[in-house]
């Protein structure tokens, strides 16, 4: 099982999984759980348990040595009641049909909690991208684009990068699609390089939203960022952006980490002087005077813990040892269901991934808006609009949190599901 990821890159997995629960089972359990708090027509819930369509395609690709290898690709489209399907494409050996369906469902909730006019999708190819040369990856991507061409499009379904794919992959996909359509159609994918219609600020957007939400939740609990200590697991696209922005806003970042371990400095780390995963891979401990393990980082006595590396890192085994006052999920699905219950019982608030890291899909939405309107927004505008969208989503979730006395996760799912159910109600069932 691929660890849960919902970066729109997902998308990667926007939810937590019990140890042997599949992504689809988790997504269905969460749907049932959120529906239990709401008076929703059970027929709508029944529909939402299933994807609208799942496309499975065969991808014969010529390897550099002349052999032809055959891969399987998927695109699961869960629900489009609020707009075109939206979600990442991942290249990973363990991509399966059911995993794509579960992740597509999480994208539906993530877009709805942000009130974006999108539904949820997810896709991918069962392949190990590390075993492909750049040329092989390009051939695979172009063939995949051709095979799913009829079911994607700027008004139909808009892929984005996810695990194992990146802006270059999106550029090939957009090029292949555009060549076949006979015109340049940048809005068919998001997460492209800015030179061909990608948005400024997309790369750091999930980390930026983590920082915005962390500040909001700290203020909610009566703390100013200036008096807040933060530990961040993972120093990649999400973790480094979140740590640096929180640092810039006055928080005291006492620990950061990568796969090799963590840098720890109780007097505060100068986050800009430590290279992120993109700038110099796995270098955090090289720059550290004092190191601790990732496991120790997760149980540090800090105000805020931001797991921003992997899924399933807060588990039954360590949830009782967590000493942070607040957890903000930067990664997708960092908290297992059991850990979630333990933290809930211990009254440690956990702000869920579908809200905290949703800056990624939100700036993807901005990218799509720019593409279909043939505009390019300045970085300042992107960041200002993102701030507004995050504030609106935060307010909606906070209102549910307060009025229903539920967890932050339940509050976010309730916001999402209410919006989706309302749209289904208004549109009705065809025929
Ligand atoms: P990344 O590859 O840029 O960085 C990952 C970081 O985690 C690296 O610093 C890496 O060293 C570290 N890491 C890897 N294995 C680790 C381990 N075992 N212990 C501790 N650290 C480890 O990835 P990213 O894009 O920042 O994604 C991180 C998480 O955030 C994932 O769950 C991803 O799905 C989620 N996410 C990403 C985006 C996005 O657009 N990039 C959006 C939303 C959510």
Can you give a write-up of this model?
The longest helix has 26 residues, at 379-404. This protein has helices spanning 23-35, 42-48, 97-113, 134-147, 167-181, 205-220, 237-248, 294-298, 337-345, 353-356, 359-372, 379-404, 408-427, and strands spanning 6-7, 11-12, 53-62, 68-79, 85-92, 119-126, 157-161, 229-233, 252-258, 261-264, 291-292, 304-307, 326-328, 350-351. Helix content is 40%, strand content 17%. The chain folds into 2 domains: 23-193, 3-Layer(aba) Sandwich (Rossmann fold), CATH 3.40.50.10860; 205-356, Rossmann fold. The strands form 3 sheets. It has a 7-stranded mixed sheet. A 5-stranded mixed sheet has the order 3-4-6-5-7. Strands 1-2 form a two-stranded antiparallel ribbon. The protein starts with 5 loop residues before the first strand and ends with a helix. The site of nicotinamide-adenine-dinucleotide has 28 residues, from helix 7 and strand 9.
């Amino acid at each position: 099982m691929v660890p849960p990821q919902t970066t729109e890159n997902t998308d990667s997995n926007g939810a937590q999984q019990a140890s042997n629960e599949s992504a689809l089972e988790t997504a269905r359990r969460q749907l049932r759980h959120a529906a239990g708090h709401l008076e929703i027509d059970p027929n709508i819930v029944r529909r939402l348990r299933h994807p609208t369509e799942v496309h499975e395609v065969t991808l014969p690709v010529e390897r550099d040595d002349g052999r032809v290898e055959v891969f399987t690709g998927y695109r699961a489209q869960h629900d489009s009641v609020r707009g075109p399907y939206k979600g990442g494409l991942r290249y990973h050996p363990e991509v399966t049909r059911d995993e794509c369906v579960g992740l597509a469902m999480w994208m539906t909730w993530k877009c709805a909690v942000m009130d974006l006019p999108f539904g949820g999708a997810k896709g991918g190819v069962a392949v190990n991208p590390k075993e492909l040369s750049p040329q092989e990856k390009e051939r695979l991507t172009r063939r995949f684009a051709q095979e799913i061409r009829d079911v994607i499009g700027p008004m139909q379904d808009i892929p984005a990068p996810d695990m194992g794919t990146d802006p270059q992959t999106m550029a090939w996909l957009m090029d292949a699609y555009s060549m076949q359509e006979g015109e340049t159609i940048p809005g068919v994918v998001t997460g492209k390089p800015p030179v061909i219609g990608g948005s400024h600020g997309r790369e750091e957007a999930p980390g930026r939203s983590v920082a915005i939400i962390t500040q909001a939740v700290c203020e909610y609990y009566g703390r100013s960022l200036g008096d807040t200590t933060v530990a961040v697991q993972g120093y990649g696209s999400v973790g480094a952006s979140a740590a640096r922005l929180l640092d810039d806003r006055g928080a005291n970042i006492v620990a950061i980490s990568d796969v090799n371990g963590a840098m720890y400095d109780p007097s505060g780390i100068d986050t800009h002087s430590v290279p992120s995963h993109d700038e110099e891979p796995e270098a955090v401990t090289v720059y550290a005077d004092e190191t601790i393990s990732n496991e120790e980082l997760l149980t540090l006595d800090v105000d805020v813990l931001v797991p921003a590396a992997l899924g399933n890192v807060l588990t039954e085994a360590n949830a009782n040892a967590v000493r942070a006052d607040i957890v903000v999920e930067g990664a997708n699905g960092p908290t297992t269901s059991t850990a979630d219950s333990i933290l809930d019982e211990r009254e440690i608030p956990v702000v869920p991934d579908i809200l905290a890291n949703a800056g990624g899909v939100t700036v993807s939405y901005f990218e799509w808006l720019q593409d279909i309107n043939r505009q390019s927004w300045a970085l300042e505008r992107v960041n200002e609009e993102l701030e507004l969208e995050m504030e609106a989503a935060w307010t909606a979730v906070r209102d549910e949190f307060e009025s229903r006395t539920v967890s932050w996760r339940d509050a976010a799912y309730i916001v999402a599901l209410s919006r989706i159910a309302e749209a289904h109600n208004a549109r009705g069932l065809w025929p």
